[in-house]
Every structure is written in C-alpha cells, then in structure tokens.
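Supplementary notes (optional reading)

For those who missed the lab, this is the record we used. Protein: Carboxypeptidase. Length: 491 residues.
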Amino acid sequence: MANKFIHLFLFCSLVVLTQSAPEGALVTQLPGFSGTFPSKHYSGYVNIDQNHGKNMFYYFVESERNPSEDPVVLWLNGGPGCSSFDGFVYEHGPFNFEAAKANESLPQLHLNLYSWSKVSNIIYLDSPVGVGFSYSKNQSDYITGDLQTAIDTHAFLLKWFELYPEFVSNPFFIAGESYAGVYVPTLSFELVKGIDAHTKPVLNFKGYLVGNGVADDEFDGNALVPFVHGMGLISDDLYEEAKNECKGNFNNPLTETCESKLDKVDQNIRDLNIYNILEPCYHSPETPEITDIKIRLPSSFWKLGETDKPLAVRKRMFGRAWPIRAPVRDGIVPTWPQLLNSLSVPCTDDEVATKWLNDPAVRKAVHAEKETAIGKWELCTDNILYNHDAGSMIKYHKNLTSREYRALIYSGDHDMCVPYTGSEAWTRSVGYDIVDEWRPWTSNGQVAGYLQGYDHNLTFLTIKGAGHTVPEYKPQEALDFYSRFLAGKPI
C-alpha cells in the first residue's frame, strides 16, 4: 500500500512539473491556420521591472520531438529595433506563411517542414523593450543600448525560467542574426556572469549561434570591397585601385581619392539586393537629397558626432552610400533605424508579417496588447534610441570560447549586408589553432557550404547560395547544421 501511495505521489508530481506553464499563456489557435499544432505553443509578457511597467513579449514553441529533453534556444533578430517575429514568420518558425489572396483575408499558415522546433524548444523574444510587442509604461526605457539590452534580456530569461521551471535543466543556447551579432555574445557574457555568481535559477548554458552577425568595426567595415570583388561585382582594375588608394582601409577613407574609388564601388552595386545578391529587389530604394553635412560611418557600428543641427549622414552600409537627413532631439543623435524612418529599406517585403500581426484577432490569440495600447507592430521600429556601447565583440567571443562554451558563427555567402568575408577574418584573428581545416560540409548529399573549425569549440561556417537570413533562403540546410550543432555532432 505504501508503495502505491509513493507511486501516486510521484505521478502527481510529474503531472505538476509538466504542466507548470503560466495560466493563460497557452496558444490554442492562430488565425490563418486550420490544422493541429505539432507541439504546444505559449506566448505573453514577462515583466522585468514592476516600477516602470517594463514588459518583454515572447512566443514559445515547444519541440516537436522531445520537449522535456531537447535544448531550449532563445532566438533574437537584430536591427537594432527589429522584432524576432521576423524569424518566426520568415525563417524557421513552425509555419510557412502564404500571402493573402484577397485584401480582406489574412495570410494562410501551413506547417513548416524545416522548422527549428523539429529538434528544439525555441523562444522568440522581442528585444529590446520598445521593439515588436515589447513595451514599457516609462518612455525613458526606450533609450537603451548594447549593455542595457543584455541586462534586460538576462532578467527576462531568469523570470521566464521561473515561469517554466520544467525546462531549467534542458541544455540552453542563445541564437540570433545580423545585429544580434552584438545581442548574442553580450547576453551570453551576462548570463555566464550570473552563473558564476550562482544566480537562481542556474541555467544549463551550453553555447551560442550567430548568423551573418556584426562583430567588429574594422573587420566588418573592411569586408565589403573584397566580397564584391570576389563575387565578380566590380572589376579587377577598380578593386586594385581601391586597394591602392585606400591602403586596404575601406572602413574609414582618409583621402578624397580613396573616397572617389569607394563611390565607384557603390555605383556598381547600388541596385543589387543587399541581403542576397542572387535575389531581385522588391522595390527601388529612394535616395534623399544630400546636404553639405556628410559623415561617413562604419558598416557595422555607428559613431555619430555631436551636433545641434539637422544631421545628414552619407552612410556606407549595405553596399552603398545612404544620404539621410534626421533631426537631433534633446542632444541625442538618432540611431540607424531612426535614420531609416523616412527611407525605404532596400529589397525587403514585410507585408505578410505586418498584415498578420496587426490583425486584432491575431494579437488576441498570441496574448499581445491591443494596437490602441502599444501601437502597431512593425518589423523594425524607430521607437528606440539606441547606444552602441559594447564595442568590438571579439573580446566577448574569446572570453566565452576560452571557457569552452560552444560557438557557431555562420554566414550566408551571398549576403552583402554583413559579408562572410568579415566573419571569416575575425574568427581567424582570435588566434586559436585550426583543428578542422577548411572543407565542404554536406546536406542531403550535396555540398552546402564550407567550414573551418578552431580550438575551444569555435566554428566558422558558410551556407552556399544563402543570403542575410540563412533559414529563409536555405531552410533544409539551416535545419541540418542547426540540428548537428545542438547535438554536439560534427557538421
């Protein structure tokens, strides 16, 4: 009889543990999808500051395989200022979205055969506060930066795992792309500091992934010209002229002659799709008028000088020079997303996500605040003033990998926004011994790209034919390397 009661107690305890998600977070249906979810979905807000009403929005997809044992992965899109629903809708979420056939109807959702939830639990987080559905009741929280974002996201994670304690022991990874090349290592560093301090709950952190991520001013800034030459987008003559006149320093031209050569490079590539040079553009970029104030900025980090008059920036980014006008408010120089406020981001199409996530029924289904309370959902917002205050990411990567946390730095090799040439160069610069010399890796029996493995679990990987958002362009290949990396298997 005693054994019977013990077994009953253990069974009840197990039931409690497997059903400890917060009440009301379960997503039971999504407008546009008529089938059955292949796993449980949860969404809602985590308050990280009661006094300010600072609320971060997440959408959590349980693994379709074995949620109690599979890794938990936090996914972050970049910007800074872009919602992680970008990854959910367009890249590796549980659904593929089919554009609405009529103006009145919503996009139709179909199951994604290559969703990353096939092999992992995944949290899509809108970060920092002010991005996507995340919001604060105190407007001062929309002035943030690299370091504060890492602190806030770490606070979110600790509270999220308190709400979902059944996942605390699962292997945990952090992943992201583009400007999340800053978010991921800074957050990982913050998390490791918490682990060292025995901050509860103690997460089972194993490593991180960064896709086409910015990392270092000099390496990223000098990556474009060699990339476009290697891709056959500029002539040998122009490449040699630019190299000679700029002395290899394309990031910060010091002479007018160097500047003029870089302008010629821009003219050759200005009409290409910056996110994937193999793909067409969806619309032609508009070019505002250039004024007499001209500041050249690096291609990854933005160091704008102080000024009290309207700022005109001619920015070499995304493979071209962008002339932009924007006012300086209260002494704060606008961030790049804000400078883009009056400028069409070239070759992007966010219509499906914008239409779906601003539908009142969808917002209700995912437990997001109404538009009247927090405004429209935008793929990338200009609501935040963002300070790039963490500097180069190389020191973060070296700190983390020297402690044997696993790192995968992957690049779609046809991305002109953050070219693979910069990521390849900085990973080599860390100075680790090569333990897996440059070689092809395969997916579905075909060469899918190339990799180089370094000591201390640092791997650089390319994906052949992919652009800036790798899973969007190469979903099967992306799921393959993602699955192998999480499992600790050779890629």
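If you only remember one thing from this example: Confidence is low (pLDDT under 50) at residues 8-18, 284-344.
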